[in-house]
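[User] At your convenience, examine this fold.
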Amino acid sequence: MTCQTLTRNELFLKNIPWTESPFFEELLNESSFSTSTKKKVKFFADNGYLIIDPEIKNFSSLADEIISSLRPEQLKHGSRVQDAWRYLPSVKTLACHPEVLNWLRILYQREPVPFQTLNFSKGTEQATHSDIVHFSSVPQRFMAGVWFALEDVDQDNGALHYYPGSHKLPVFDLHDIGLSKSTLSNRDLQYKEYESFVKVLMEKKGYKKETIQIKKGSYLIWSANLFHGGDPIKDKSRTRHSLVTHCYFDQCRYYNPLYSDVAMGNIAWKEVTDIQSGKKISHYYNGKKVSLPMKTKARYLIENFMRKNRLGREIFANIKRALTRA
């Protein structure tokens, strides 16, 4: 499949994803995409996610390598492993797979920037949330998640759940529910308040939860503002190996809303490394390059150095745990 771009016209809004544009239907009708591609794009625009069943060469061997390579780390430190792409080529291969990147280009009409991977050996059982509370951009909504099933997922081993159409809601952050930016010491308490708000929001707005059962080798792409989470694990003896890639898009600014008070000018800007190239991505605002603050650069210099080896990752994790308990 080759990537196609839209014909630029007066309806195309550069700083809003075209699938969330008020002119989406007109843009879709005027596009040169095939009927099959248009159907998938329309589904993504309506529901906020898209399931792809690809035929990736050597997928089983890639999945087996990821699972076996990360097993010691997951047995010692838990299911979640962040940024294994830095030292495990098979993770990077899937995170940067050409078909995945091409679908992201189609859905957002910008160049995708995969910047973080998360590997799980178990279902997360995570409460419903929107990724925008963790990863946001200026302009908003230029972030997407990609979730690879490294083994079959069903209702017993911790399937994903989504609220189709919820991505069309306004973007909510901590300030909307009366909270200032989080710190490592109060983050968990504040996040529980956010989760309680989301639960009521889904109920009052009438969104219906859907649980997605998916076969090994398939993947999902979801919109930044789609509300989603992990169902309870009914069979505790089972694994649910998966790979998540979070992707920004180029020509944006990138920040973490959870640790930001935007109205006060206190913004936790993110230094973003493109997994494809290993290079840092510049921040842009309306086509103009913007520099990161020195304190942000210093923080990431230390963090990236520590993540380069296993000992550094363990030290970094211990420091974060200590600060969280403080």
